[in-house]
């Protein structure tokens, strides 16, 4: 029978532990950058590497917020904080997220995605269709009087590939694609009382592409540095530039984007400004059913 690779188990344990620590740091007035820095440092200390920058997305920000350099943003007095942690060990990835309700008044939103995730996990076995999973998530979130976010999806994961091709919907679909024994997926329901999720103008997370175009001077040097350092894994603008103080990082990133040498992950926000909740686990599909690698034990 197929089993998860030991490095996949290790990545999952690190992610679960570090996510728990990060959630305990979510208190009014705590600096968001201190949570990001803690998560990224602890992942390294525990023998993993970040599979993407720590996301700390507050209220109507649904995902993809990580602190820029010198970020003054602090945790507010109430609302929802989504912490999303990615770890890899030798390319074996764990991706997990939770929502903290700061003052306890939006607990129903947290339960909605927690429940939807738990119910979706129960369906995981070889042969289950993506449509069945999405329909279950949709149904559970609707029972809480909320809307599942259709623009954001779970995803299959392969070694060194965070988004490996399959999209696991958070809404009812007729997708008959099935999951197979030995596959790994991240399931991540999002719920809101608002409507849609859209890109904002802010971008703090990027990833290398495999596109080869001619670049010159410092831009080319930076591209080579980013490729060598982060490979296929997303990185934060905050991470760049400690050893190259003469380089204007925002300007260089713009040039790399224009040349399509990197791609951007804009901060995602709910259109009407309503809070969004998220719950996520990474699951190995075994013949015996789901093996959740990111569960805290
Ligand atoms: Mn995630
Ligand atoms: Mn994910």
Model description:
- The chain has 297 residues and is of the alpha+beta class.
- It folds into 2 domains: 6-199 and 272-292, Creatinase/methionine aminopeptidase superfamily (Creatine Amidinohydrolase, Alpha-Beta Complex); 200-267, Orthogonal Bundle (Arc Repressor Mutant, subunit A).
- Helices cover 30% and strands 28% of the residues.
- It contains 6 helices and 15 strands.
- The strands form 4 sheets. The chain has a 5-stranded antiparallel beta sheet. A 4-stranded antiparallel beta sheet has the order 2-12-10-11.
- Strand 3 (80-89) and strand 4 (92-101) form a beta hairpin.
- The longest helix is centred in the N-terminal third of the chain and has 20 residues, at 6-25.
- The chain starts with 5 loop residues before the first helix and ends in a 5-residue tail after the last strand.
- The model has no long low-confidence stretch (mean pLDDT 96).
- The site of one manganese (II) ion (MN) has 5 residues, from strand 4.
- The site of one manganese (II) ion has 5 residues, from loops.
């Amino acid at each position: 029978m197929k089993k998860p690779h030991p490095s996949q188990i290790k990545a999952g344990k690190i992610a679960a532990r570090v996510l728990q620590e990060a959630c305990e740091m979510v208190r009014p007035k705590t600096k968001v950058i201190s949570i990001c820095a803690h998560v990224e440092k602890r992942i390294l200390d525990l023998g993993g590497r970040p599979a993407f920058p720590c996301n700390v997305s507050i209220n109507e920000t649904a995902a993809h917020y990580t602190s820029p350099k010198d970020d003054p943003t602090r945790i507010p007095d109430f609302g929802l904080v989504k912490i999303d942690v990615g770890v890899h060990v030798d390319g074996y990835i764990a991706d997990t997220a939770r929502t903290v309700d700061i003052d306890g008044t939006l607990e129903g939103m947290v339960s909605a995605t927690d429940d939807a995730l738990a119910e979706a996990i129960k369906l995981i076995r070889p042969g289950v269709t993506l449509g069945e999973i999405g329909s279950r998530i949709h149904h559970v979130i609707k029972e809480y009087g909320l809307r599942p976010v259709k623009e954001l999806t779970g995803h299959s994961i392969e070694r060194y590939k965070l988004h490996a091709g399959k999209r696991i919907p958070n809404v009812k679909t007729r997708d008959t694609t099935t999951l197979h024994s030995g596959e790994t997926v991240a399931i991540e329901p999002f719920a809101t009382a608002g409507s849609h999720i859209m890109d904002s103008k802010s971008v703090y997370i990027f990833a290398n592409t495999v596109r080869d175009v001619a670049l010159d001077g410092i831009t080319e040097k930076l591209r080579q540095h980013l490729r060598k350092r982060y490979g296929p894994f997303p990185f934060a603008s905050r991470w760049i530039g400690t050893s190259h103080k003469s380089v204007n990082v925002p300007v260089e990133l713009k040039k790399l984007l224009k040349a399509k040498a990197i791609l951007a992950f804009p901060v995602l926000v709910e259109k009407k400004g309503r809070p969004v909740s998220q719950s996520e686990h990474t699951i190995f599909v075994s013949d015996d059913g789901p093996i959740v690698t990111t569960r805290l034990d």
